[in-house]
From TrEMBL:
Pathway: tRNA modification; 5-methoxycarbonylmethyl-2-thiouridine-tRNA biosynthesis. GO terms for biological process: tRNA wobble uridine modification. This is Elongator complex protein 6. GO terms for cellular component: elongator holoenzyme complex. InterPro entries: ELP6, P-loop_NTPase. Pfam families: ELP6 (PF09807).
Length: 216
């Protein structure tokens, strides 16, 4: 779990509230490895980041624009031990757009994801889940390049956005689910589903557009 937008404690609270899952317990069982980018970035900037077992900091790209150390950290963390019974490794990155803000180039980020895909998806038969931010009115060409490339190579895209009509207390936004069937080299077109949602204290409710319980 590579965190660049949130802290480990924040994610643990969210997972515990919505899913009843303890990330701390999963980490203790060896199911989860955290890279807390927020803390590591500050430690690296102020010279408090220590090398682990002689290995360079995964975030050294902040000064070199080279994501190899970050990739090596992820590859080592996901490589199963001889007695490891856990299958189906999953790499979660929150949020990939932050890497651009920290000095990485779009090409470096896309190369990083490509090599992660080779290790996680091809070799370990797992999956990669990546969060990015994008805005149609944005003038950030580097972020747009990264987002468009990721969408082009993704099997499943979840696109969350606000309502075009503005704020509504009963409908907080909509999510577009795009299943890239065209990547399977078949004659099928991509399948698109659109739902609206409302975020509650301990749950998220999804419904078809215009079918909110408050409107019926």
């Amino acid at each position: 779990f590579a965190l660049f937008l949130q802290s480990c404690s924040c994610c643990n609270i969210v997972f515990s509230s919505l899913e009843g899952v303890s990330l701390t317990a999963a980490k203790e069982r060896g199911q989860l490895v955290f890279l807390e980018g927020l803390k590591s970035c500050l430690d690296l900037v102020f010279g408090e980041e220590e090398e682990q077992l002689g290995q360079p900091s995964p975030l050294q790209f902040m000064s070199t624009s080279d994501l190899k150390a970050l990739f090596d950290f992820i590859r080592t963390s996901l490589t199963p031990a001889d007695n490891d019974s856990w299958k189906g490794s999953v790499l979660l990155v929150d949020d990939l757009s932050i890497l651009l803000s920290l000095g990485a180039t779009p090409v470096a980020v896309l190369d990083f994801i490509h090599y992660c895909r080779v290790v996680v998806c091809s070799q370990l038969k797992g999956n990669i889940v990546v969060l990015v931010h994008s805005n149609e009115d944005s003038e950030d060409d580097e972020n747009d390049l990264m987002v468009n490339s990721l969408c082009h190579h993704s099997d499943l895209i979840l696109w969350a956005e606000g309502l075009a009509t503005g704020f509504c207390k009963d409908v907080h936004g909509q999510i577009k689910i795009i299943r890239r069937l065209s990547l399977q080299l078949t004659a099928e077109e991509d399948r698109v589903q659109i739902y609206q949602y409302k975020i509650q204290d301990r749950n998220v409710t999804f419904f078809a557009p215009g079918l909110s319980a408050a409107l019926l």
